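pasting for the record
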Amino acid sequence: MDPNRAVGFDPRAAYATTSESVQAGKAARGPVPRGRHREFEPGADRSDPVDVLERQSQNRVPELVPIRYGRMLVSPFTFYRGAAAIMAEDLASTPDSGLRVQCCGDAHLSNFGVFASPERRLVFDLNDFDETLPGPWEWDLKRLAASMLIAAQTNEFRRIDQQRAVLATAASYRSAMRDFAALGNLEVWYARFDIESVLERYQAQLRPKAVKGTRKALAKARTRDSMSSFSKLTQLVDGQPRIVDQSPLIVPLEQLASGVEREQLFDELVRVLGGYRDSLAPDRRPLIDRFELVDFARKVVGVGSVGTEAWIALLLGPDGREPLFLQAKQAGPSVLEDFVGASAFDNHGERVVVGQRLMQADSDIFLGWLRVDEDYHSQDYYCRQLKDWKGSAEIEQLDPEALVVYGQMCGWTLARAHARSGDRIAIAAYLGAGDRFDRAILEFSESYAEQNERDFRALADAAESGRITVETGL
């Protein structure tokens, strides 16, 4: 049986038995022993990292690209956050077991966080899927583990604490995959990490101050919704709510067009959102129909995504009493495509949405996609609520113990995401019960952190020489 069949999305496929999956996982150790995952040696033909970033910039809003560079140059860690395309090429040259899953494609630690489930519970999960695509499970784990090490270095932790964070992350993934291998398919699908379970499971490992700070951050996350966004992002203009100009980070429609041109653009946006409505499940369409689009603005998002088109839409319920903010984010080809093949989906927004629904335990009720057809090309987007109890760890405030716990949470969550799509039994059999794989991942992470530092310096040199333009402080 083919151990990769789970990502083929073919309901007629024959599935391996437990013994066949175990055999496939152990057989994969032959050509790729677990210790080989320590390997990372940049080749002589490795692409110039600044070239990679400049190629990405060709498809981004030109005036926003300097903001992206400025955010990446804050630290080696922020550079790493924006360097998914660079690392994808590097990972493609590293050994992998041949077992496939639905990959996140950019599984660094800041792409995990808390948000509201449809049942209005605060859950912890992956929350960024711009690069999602079927691929080797090792690539996601290596990107996560290296991010742990680079964050620990940025926080100036002792080397032993840096290593602890990486080893805890890898061990958590390995042990969680072993646990998921023993569960039934439905049990894996129902598994989730609600925040109360997180605190109960890990608070004994944290200092009282860290627990208190976590509870405070979670309480703050619960206040982040469309109503709080409405008070911060809008003002009344001629008695009507409009998105406030915060250029260049948030640029309202009025600043992009005026008069008749604005009205025509607004009408076109209403039409385009109709296509987004069709991508929602039928039971969600009557809900979105209860809201009316009243304003639109362009928004700068994230670090790696800066320069891609992102829009926020303000919708209001009957009598203007219930605001709803949606975010539409540009979706282009995944950075993994050059190395694992093109997406099976014609619309990259749909690629993101399907990958997100496959990897996340709970997805936003308004998650959908759309396509905008222009004169010479079309552009894909995916949509979701702008904020719905969303929060993420402030990495610079984590102490060594908290980073270890965070790594354990991320490792478990990534394993759960991979177990939903890949052959969890084969992966668990490949990993085994010992820590040989964990230590190999640590060595890889240390080598890659050195490469990331060199790439960060290359971008800084490009800024100093004038090769690239940088906008800081935004």
